[in-house]
Specification:
101 residues, mainly beta, 8 strands
Amino acid sequence: MVLIIDNEITLNIDTAGEMVKGVYKEGEPTQKQIKCNVQPSSREKTYGEYGYYIDAQYSVYCYVDTDIKEGLTVTYKGNEYEIIKLVDWSDYYILYLKAVL
Protein backbone atom coordinates (compact mmCIF):
# COMPACT_ATOMS: atom_id res chain seq x y z
CA MET A 1 0.00 0.00 0.00
CA VAL A 2 1.22 3.48 -0.82
CA LEU A 3 0.47 5.95 1.94
CA ILE A 4 -0.30 9.58 1.26
CA ILE A 5 2.00 11.35 3.69
CA ASP A 6 0.71 14.88 4.24
CA ASN A 7 0.84 15.38 8.02
CA GLU A 8 3.19 14.95 10.93
CA ILE A 9 2.74 13.91 14.54
CA THR A 10 5.27 14.21 17.35
CA LEU A 11 5.85 10.98 19.25
CA ASN A 12 6.60 11.60 22.95
CA ILE A 13 8.98 8.89 24.19
CA ASP A 14 9.94 8.50 27.85
CA THR A 15 13.42 7.02 28.06
CA ALA A 16 14.00 4.61 30.93
CA GLY A 17 16.40 5.62 33.67
CA GLU A 18 19.60 3.68 34.33
CA MET A 19 22.26 3.04 36.93
CA VAL A 20 25.52 4.85 36.18
CA LYS A 21 28.42 3.97 38.52
CA GLY A 22 26.01 3.10 41.30
CA VAL A 23 23.90 6.25 40.92
CA TYR A 24 20.43 6.19 39.33
CA LYS A 25 20.16 8.62 36.42
CA GLU A 26 16.62 9.69 35.43
CA GLY A 27 15.55 9.05 31.85
CA GLU A 28 14.94 12.04 29.64
CA PRO A 29 11.85 12.59 27.52
CA THR A 30 12.50 12.43 23.79
CA GLN A 31 10.42 13.57 20.86
CA LYS A 32 10.40 12.10 17.37
CA GLN A 33 8.66 13.45 14.29
CA ILE A 34 6.57 10.85 12.42
CA LYS A 35 5.42 11.61 8.88
CA CYS A 36 1.91 10.24 8.41
CA ASN A 37 -1.64 10.63 7.17
CA VAL A 38 -4.18 11.70 9.80
CA GLN A 39 -7.91 11.15 9.34
CA PRO A 40 -10.85 12.00 11.64
CA SER A 41 -12.26 8.94 13.37
CA SER A 42 -15.07 7.85 15.65
CA ARG A 43 -16.30 4.76 17.47
CA GLU A 44 -18.75 4.00 14.67
CA LYS A 45 -16.13 4.41 11.95
CA THR A 46 -13.53 2.15 13.59
CA TYR A 47 -16.14 -0.49 14.29
CA GLY A 48 -17.59 -0.35 10.77
CA GLU A 49 -14.23 -0.42 8.99
CA TYR A 50 -12.12 -2.69 11.19
CA GLY A 51 -14.38 -4.19 13.85
CA TYR A 52 -12.69 -2.36 16.74
CA TYR A 53 -15.09 -0.83 19.24
CA ILE A 54 -12.84 1.99 20.46
CA ASP A 55 -13.47 5.68 20.99
CA ALA A 56 -10.79 7.44 18.91
CA GLN A 57 -10.71 10.99 17.55
CA TYR A 58 -8.13 10.22 14.83
CA SER A 59 -6.82 7.35 12.73
CA VAL A 60 -3.17 7.75 11.77
CA TYR A 61 -1.56 5.85 8.91
CA CYS A 62 2.25 5.70 8.97
CA TYR A 63 5.13 3.47 8.00
CA VAL A 64 6.41 0.93 10.53
CA ASP A 65 8.59 2.42 13.27
CA THR A 66 9.68 0.35 16.27
CA ASP A 67 9.49 3.40 18.57
CA ILE A 68 5.70 3.59 18.14
CA LYS A 69 3.84 1.69 20.88
CA GLU A 70 0.37 1.63 22.42
CA GLY A 71 0.13 3.85 25.49
CA LEU A 72 2.58 6.49 24.25
CA THR A 73 1.37 10.03 23.71
CA VAL A 74 1.64 12.07 20.55
CA THR A 75 1.20 15.75 19.81
CA TYR A 76 -0.87 16.74 16.80
CA LYS A 77 -1.84 20.35 16.00
CA GLY A 78 -0.87 21.44 19.52
CA ASN A 79 -3.03 18.85 21.31
CA GLU A 80 -1.94 15.70 23.12
CA TYR A 81 -3.36 12.27 22.27
CA GLU A 82 -2.72 8.74 23.51
CA ILE A 83 -2.17 5.83 21.14
CA ILE A 84 -4.98 3.53 22.31
CA LYS A 85 -4.67 0.94 19.54
CA LEU A 86 -1.87 0.05 17.13
CA VAL A 87 -2.65 -2.20 14.17
CA ASP A 88 0.39 -3.66 12.35
CA TRP A 89 -0.33 -4.27 8.65
CA SER A 90 3.13 -5.67 7.75
CA ASP A 91 4.34 -2.55 5.89
CA TYR A 92 2.40 0.19 7.68
CA TYR A 93 0.71 0.96 11.00
CA ILE A 94 -2.74 2.28 11.82
CA LEU A 95 -2.75 4.19 15.11
CA TYR A 96 -5.96 5.16 16.87
CA LEU A 97 -5.62 8.33 18.94
CA LYS A 98 -7.73 9.49 21.85
CA ALA A 99 -7.47 12.96 23.39
CA VAL A 100 -5.63 13.20 26.71
CA LEU A 101 -7.77 15.25 29.09
